């Protein structure tokens, strides 16, 4: 068998985001096949064989690839609607449109969402997809195919809804699946697509949507299904005061206690938002090692509130970052969420001590890998881990005069990506995707957005 081809990257600042936050002001990395072989200060070792490429990365910071832990790809074609609503009003305004999606729409929206994240340094993406209209085609297959074509590492959280208006839920009756139908389709998706290997490009999680759109049975049976199949669990939790009120009225307890009563706390679970958490909720997450996907822009857009990220980190809760669906965060970029997480948390109780630049970068990299259950494989730059990394260009107008590269990346303007590698393969060069045609995707998403708007208007 031929030795792995090597790629050598030199003359760059490096933020490894390892356990000691090791950084090099000027260092090198050696990639071999799909792994990081070595890294350190100064130039690469001499005499390396099979070097296919040598990159002079002067003026760059190299970090682990960014990891997005919460998204809804299909919303790419319903951006800019209901812009002045809170969560519940926004959902009620958009459900009737969302319930008309079909496979070509979902494929285009997935390509748009993935392209926007990938060219901004995301190397591991996830999609929480929970709208499966009857007869709409193979939506999970379309989403997974889009991620595979783009070359991005990916987790599909196979979502579901079965609590509609007639059962006291929020979605309209025609937008939901049955309990048995949702469980069977989720199991089928896991069996067909989930890969548990170290360098897996596709994983599947079990992901009923939220307490106000899912029955207690679907939560309980979904948790049992995930554990029987050995996959992770994902849902929305404690997003708004309205959700908290809903849980007290229907279940006689707050969201965290309700999740605990249905088997939804555990180290194999991560939950989006977790904005309205009291001290005992945070302690329960820490005790059970339940993860959190912090989505600062979406929480601001929907006026949900500020999640207590500094308290969660202090308690030992694993926290990653998410853009959330792009109907509540029209930008869909994760690298700007590093900055937003830092700034928004400083508006909370801990003020300037809330988060620093290194902690924000950790949320978007290692923290994301933790909540997706992939911290052994990715999320930091260490020998033996997967070659998922980004070269950020920091020597131009926007960043050149900022004192420190990690500060420049987090506090500064959205930094350009010179190169992004996933599994040792380059997918972005000079801010452009190598694996897809951005302009064609832009046209397709515009056309599908217009087609959906027309269908929804005629319904
Ligand atoms: Zn969401």
Automatic annotation (TrEMBL):
SUPFAM superfamilies recorded: Composite domain of metallo-dependent hydrolases, Metallo-dependent hydrolases
Naturally occurring in which organism (per UniProt): Streptomyces paradoxus
Family matches, as InterPro entries: Amidohydro-rel, Metal-dep_hydrolase_composite, Metal_Hydrolase, MTA/SAH_deaminase
Protein name in UniProt: Cytosine/adenosine deaminase-related metal-dependent hydrolase
Record Gene3D superfamilies: Metal-dependent hydrolases (3.20.20.140), Urease, subunit C, domain 1 (2.30.40.10)
Keywords: Hydrolase, Metal-binding, Zinc
Domain Amidohydrolase-related intervals: 61-425
GO molecular function: deaminase activity; hydrolase activity, acting on carbon-nitrogen (but not peptide) bonds, in cyclic amidines; metal ion binding
């Amino acid at each position: 068998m031929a030795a792995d081809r090597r790629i050598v990257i030199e003359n760059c600042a490096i933020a490894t985001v390892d356990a000691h936050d090791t950084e090099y002001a000027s260092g090198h990395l050696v990639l071999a096949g799909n792994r990081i072989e070595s890294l350190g200060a100064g130039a690469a070792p001499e005499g390396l064989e099979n070097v296919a490429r040598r990159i002079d990365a002067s003026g760059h910071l190299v970090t682990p690839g960014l990891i997005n832990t919460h998204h809804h790809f299909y919303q790419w074609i319903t951006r800019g609607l209901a812009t002045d609503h809170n969560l519940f009003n926004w959902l009620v305004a958009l459900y009737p449109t969302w319930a008309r999606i079909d496979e070509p729409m979902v494929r285009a929206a997935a390509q748009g969402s993935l392209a926007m994240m990938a060219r901004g340094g995301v190397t591991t993406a996830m999609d929480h997809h929970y709208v499966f209209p009857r007869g709409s085609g193979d939506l999970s297959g379309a989403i997974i195919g889009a991620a595979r074509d783009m070359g991005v590492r990916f987790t599909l959280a196979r979502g579901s809804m079965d609590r509609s208006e007639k059962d006291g839920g929020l979605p309209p009756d025609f937008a939901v699946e049955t309990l048995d139908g949702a469980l069977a389709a989720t199991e089928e998706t896991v069996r067909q697509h989930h890969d548990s290997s170290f360098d897996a490009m596709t994983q599947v999680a079990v992901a009923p949507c939220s307490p106000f759109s899912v029955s207690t049975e679907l939560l309980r049976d979904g948790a049992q299904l995930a554990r029987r199949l050995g996959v992770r669990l994902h849902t929305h939790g404690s997003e708004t005061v309205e959700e908290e009120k809903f849980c007290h009225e229907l279940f006689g307890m707050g969201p965290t206690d309700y999740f605990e009563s249905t088997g939804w706390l555990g180290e194999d679970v991560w939950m989006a938002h977790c904005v309205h958490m009291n001290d005992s909720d945070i302690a329960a997450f820490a005790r059970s090692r339940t993860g959190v996907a912090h989505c600062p822009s979406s929480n601001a857009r929907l006026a949900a509130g500020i999640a207590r990220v500094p308290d969660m980190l202090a308690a030992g809760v694993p926290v990653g970052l998410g853009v959330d669906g792009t109907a509540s965060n029209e930008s869909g970029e994760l690298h700007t969420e590093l900055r937003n997480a830092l700034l928004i948390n400083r508006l909370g109780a801990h003020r300037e001590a809330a988060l620093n630049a290194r902690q924000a970068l950790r949320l978007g990299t290692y923290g994301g890998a933790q909540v997706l259950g992939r911290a052994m494989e990715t999320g930091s730059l260490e020998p033996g881990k997967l070659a998922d990394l980004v070269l950020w260009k920091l020597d131009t107008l926007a960043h050149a005069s900022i004192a420190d590269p990690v500060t420049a990346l987090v506090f500064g303007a959205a930094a350009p990506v010179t190169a992004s590698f996933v599994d040792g393969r380059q997918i972005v060069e000079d801010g452009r995707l190598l694996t897809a045609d951005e302009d064609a995707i832009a046209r397709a998403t515009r056309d599908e957005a217009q087609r959906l708007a027309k269908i929804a208007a005629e319904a």
